[in-house]
Amino acid sequence: MTGPRASLFRAALADARGPALGTWVKIPATEVVELVALAGFDFVVIDLEHSPIDLESAFRLIGTALHTGVSPIVRVADLHPGLVQRVLDAGAEGVMVPHVDTPEQARAAAAAVRFPPLGTRGVGATSRAGAWGALPLAEYLRRGQEEVVLIAQVESALGVANAGEIAAVPGVDALLVGAADLSVSEGKTPSDPDVVALIASAIAQGRAAGVPVGNAGAATAAAVRAAVDTGFTFTMLSNDATLLGSAARAAVDAGRSVTFHDEETR
């Protein structure tokens, strides 16, 4: 598509019917993204932090997502501007950066994601993001500045303390509260009252700054209901590997529930 195009992720966030729904992609197979898209997810987060997915696999997963109508976000392992540049030119609609603890780190992430004068991202208009050169340069630049999303992960008490300032950094579009890392860093469980209070504080600060705040949880209606009631506006429903494993276990459990009536049946 060589004309103006809005971000699928931003469109999902704007849907007033309910939270935007996504899942992590950890398996480097394009079929996974096809299945997720067919299931009706709004977005996927291709995980380069906690999976064996490499850049070439991410490139193919991004392309599959774009062709099947699900928004591709890429979580990088850390802030490496060169990698951010490459996944965005591969067509990713956004980048998620883990362990953003300070406004300075948020500004560095925003600089990597945005073109000058907002940032330092280089121009690569002959990439997939620029429709291999068919997209007018002005539209390629507009998409990079206005449609691409930067999601900062808040995963520590320090990050929570700075959540409002992080969310207010120009170029930061959303926060994702990492309850697992937050609780582990505090030596507590995610349900501990102190951790619950930290999560509530991060949500309140993000919303006060006018940015959506998301979380990662289980693939159940109860988990999504709890996320919405807590104040999250987008949520991750499990991940591809866990969803596949759960379905496989359910199939085997169903099969094992059937036994032979007697020896003659054999």
Automatic annotation (TrEMBL):
GO terms for molecular function: aldehyde-lyase activity; metal ion binding. Keywords: Lyase, Metal-binding. GO terms for cellular component: cytoplasm. Residues 22-242 form the HpcH/HpaI aldolase/citrate lyase domain. InterPro entries: Aldolase/citrate-lyase_domain (IPR005000), HpcH-HpaI_aldolase (IPR050251), Pyrv/PenolPyrv_kinase-like_dom (IPR015813), Pyrv_kinase-like_dom_sf (IPR040442). Belongs to the HpcH/HpaI aldolase family. This is 2,4-dihydroxyhept-2-ene-1,7-dioic acid aldolase. It comes from Modestobacter versicolor.
